[in-house]
Amino acid sequence: MRKFYILLFFLLSSYSFSTLFAQDLTCLDCHQEHSLTKSINDSTEVSVYVDTTQLAQSVHADLECTDCHAVGADHPNGGPVPDPTCSNCHDDEQEDYAKSIHGKAYSNGNKTAANCWSCHGAHNIRAQDDSTSMVNNRNLLTTCGSCHSRPDIMKQFGGHAVDPVAAFKESIHGKIFTEDPEAPVANCVACHGSHAILPVIEPEAKLNKLNIPKTCGACHVEEEKEYYQSIHWDALRRGHYEAPVCTDCHGEHNIHLAEGAKSVTNPKLQATKLCASCHSSPSLMGKFGLDPHRLDSYMKTYHGLAVLKGSPRAATCTSCHEVHAIRSSTDSLSTVFVGNRQKTCGQCHQNVSKDFANIDVHPVTLKGRNPVAYFFKIMYTWMIILVIGGMFLHNFIILFYYIRQKWNTEKNEPRYQRFQRGEVYEHFLLFLAFFFLAVTGFALKFPNAGWVKLLVSIGMDETVRSVVHRIAAVTLAILSLIQLYRFVMTHKGRKDFLSLIPTRDDLTQIYQNLRFYLGLSKTRPKFGRYDYAAKAEYLALMWGNMVMGLTGFTLWFPEIVMRYSPTWVFETFQVIHYFEAWLAVLAILVWHMFFVIFHPEKYPMDFTWIDGKIAEEEFKHEHPLEYKELIENKEK
Q: Tens of pLDDT along 262-295?
């Protein structure tokens, strides 16, 4: 009887094996053909060829086709073939996947969402510890990056344009992981999970904000313990999701060494960017009853100024408040609690007294906090105004004396009319227009400058500023048209224009003039109506007016100009307008002011701008060729 059962078992096993083997051969009869394809949505042809070599080397080598592919006996029948079924064996993993962000998207019809074979492979599935496996640590970044590094796929899911895999590779985690994939360091699966990658809104998600400390704490155990003692965690537990967790301060994929130059947690960026992103927000700080000016006040102290200068030793936010275990100042365990400040300050300062430790490093309301210091602040403010103001008035009286002296001296000498009265008025209007354009233009660019705040306090709000700027611009444009009219329509204007055209002699005169002032020659070049300095300045003025006029018109009327211009024009003209303004202002200060005020032969002032006249001796000295021509014409 025993032999009968053995024979029966052998026959049944042989029948089963032959049936399954025949089944596999039946599938492979077609699927071994390289040219075999199927149509998806009647538009896309995809290959359904099966590489038996890969299949034989996979972990599923001993499975039959129908263990994964639920096809009927009449296959192929032209009907749709269902996706492979992994849950026959991997039911727990399938359950996790169904709850995941990938699984939900796939079940909702988005076939670009990751599925089992997207990550593990199809017929070439290897064990996870196999170095050729798609989910082996060596290949994990490539596998995840096949979707997450593609903007076209991420866009379908509302993902960012930033490549998380590329950012991770540049991080401290990524560099360690790339060098040693087996190192116990954060990677895609460690932080996001594998099959149960849940939307962050889900309470169980590893990257739900309440769970991030625990997720990071899998490696950073001590930091997690410290964070749970912080005021940030207390706020987060109470439902204030504005409170920061690990990723808010350290970043997500692009985490660098805490004190590295690229890290947002390095000492210089802590006060200026990292902590300031929350603690300088009036709306956010108002919600918690905190002062949004605390960081501003810190930046005015020695600590803040030294940090901005790049000092590695100056105290920054975490030097006093700790790094992860940041507690309320009213907590007796806090490093900034009144009773603990001596110890905290003693980390940098030796022999710290109680009074020293209680110096406010966030000074804001000086009047209420320290009346004595406030008194001296007011006293010195008025002392500066009165003393420096008195010095200025005293010196101005002396300067005005010498201006009168020079005026009286030149008034009694023969003087010649170089410029007509109308040209003098135009020059004065040009000066005013230029001055108001510069002031109102830079006031827009630097709204936080002290001089701008002073102007705002006396009434120059944005409406006034913009109106004054445009009035000055129109005035400058009108003056330019008047000058153009004079150049074209009047005899003197045409003569002036010809005199302003640069010639080869100007290059020679530059060389001769510099040789004279360097003491290499005893002879000065002889200039006509305009020397090379005046020509350069006037031509620069003409060029600047055209550039500022064109770009200014575009910024004033962008709707009109951009109807006929490409997109890049507006921003480009903004840049040109700004830097041309700097060029013009600096040229006036460095070049023009020197030749009309600070030049030793002109100081304290060239009076030609007042009445258009020039003293005879100065005329002979500065413009000998023009003077000679004038005398010859008189003699005729």
A: 787 887 777 778 888 899 899 999 888 888 888 8
Q: Is the peptide bond before 213 cis (omega within 30 degrees of 0)?
A: no
- Output the six-digit token pair for 627: 């003077």
Is the dihedral angle over the CA atoms 196, 202, 205, 207 positive or is it negative?
Answer: positive
Share of the chain above pLDDT 70, in %: 93
Domain ranges for the chain: 83-208, 224-364, 418-635
Q: In angstroms, what CA-CA distances link 351 with 70, 271, 322, 354, 358? A: 80, 27, 21, 10, 14
Query: What secondary structure letter does DSSP report for 139?
Result: G
Residue 377 neighbours by CB under 8 Å, 6+ apart? 366
CA 67 – CA 69 distance, rounded (Å): 6
- How far apart CA 284 and CA 277 sit, in angstroms, is 10
Task: Please say whether the beta carbons of 156 and 112 come within 8 A.
Answer: yes
**Contacts of the segment 53-62: beta carbons below 8 A, 24+ positions apart:** 54/123, 54/124, 55/123, 55/124, 57/124, 57/126, 58/121, 58/123, 58/124, 58/125, 58/126, 59/125, 59/126, 59/127, 60/123, 60/125
Task: State whether residue 228 is helix, strand or coil.
Answer: coil
Residue-by-residue DSSP string for 578-609: HHHHHHHHHHIIIIIHIIIIISTTTTT--THH
CB atoms within 10 A of CB 619: 19
81-140 pLDDT tens trace: 778 889 889 999 999 999 999 999 988 888 888 999 999 998 999 999 899 999 999 999
Q: Which residues contact 175 (CB under 8 A, 6 or more apart)?
A: 169
Tell me the chain's radius of gyration from C-alpha atoms.
41
Task: Give the pLDDT confidence of 333-353 residue by residue, as tens digits.
Answer: 999 998 899 999 989 898 889
- Which DSSP string corresponds to 501-533? S--HHHHHHHHHHHHHHTTS-S-PPPP-SS-HH
* 238 or 262, greater pLDDT: 238
Q: In CATH, which of 3.40.50.10610, 3.40.50.970, 1.10.760.10, 1.20.950.20 is domain 418-635? A: 1.20.950.20
